């Protein structure tokens, strides 16, 4: 399992930008981490690199935010408040079929409904201080495409 230490919100956004630069249509990115870990911060970097000019916000209360104006559509989902893991109001299969990038926060609530090929990141705080920006990211690849995506993104990040 690959790991990376991030020391600032800027680096978290840079990692997001690196993932966006190397993403392809139909890629699936799963983000795990406690509240405030940096999942949305990373997605903001993704959005900026994809050419989204409006604010990329957490979809905690809306469940899904669509950004179709980007170089490649970005579908940002947050299942933290999904009631009883009920996806009936969300066309998850439809989003996954679109030629865009799907980013899911709190994916553990819907793992049975997801394809078996994805890149998963688990973000944890390095220390207990609430205002610390140091994070450890563990990458878990599922499928050859995700393996290549991670390799390319980490190469881009280190530039």
Automatic annotation (TrEMBL):
Pfam families: TsaE
UniProt GO cellular component terms: cytoplasm
GO biological process entries: tRNA threonylcarbamoyladenosine modification
Single GO MF descriptor: ATP binding
Record keyword Metal-binding present: yes
Subcellular location: Cytoplasm
Gene3D superfamilies assigned: P-loop containing nucleotide triphosphate hydrolases (3.40.50.300)
UniProt KW keywords: ATP-binding, Cytoplasm, Kinase, Magnesium, Metal-binding, Nucleotide-binding, Transferase, tRNA processing
Cited InterPro entries: P-loop_NTPase (IPR027417), T6A_TsaE (IPR003442)
Coiled-coil segments on the chain, per record: none
Family: Belongs to the TsaE family.
Name of protein: tRNA threonylcarbamoyladenosine biosynthesis protein TsaE
Species the sequence originates in: Lactobacillus acidophilus (strain ATCC 700396 / NCK56 / N2 / NCFM)
Organism phylogeny: Bacteria, Bacillati, Bacillota, Bacilli, Lactobacillales
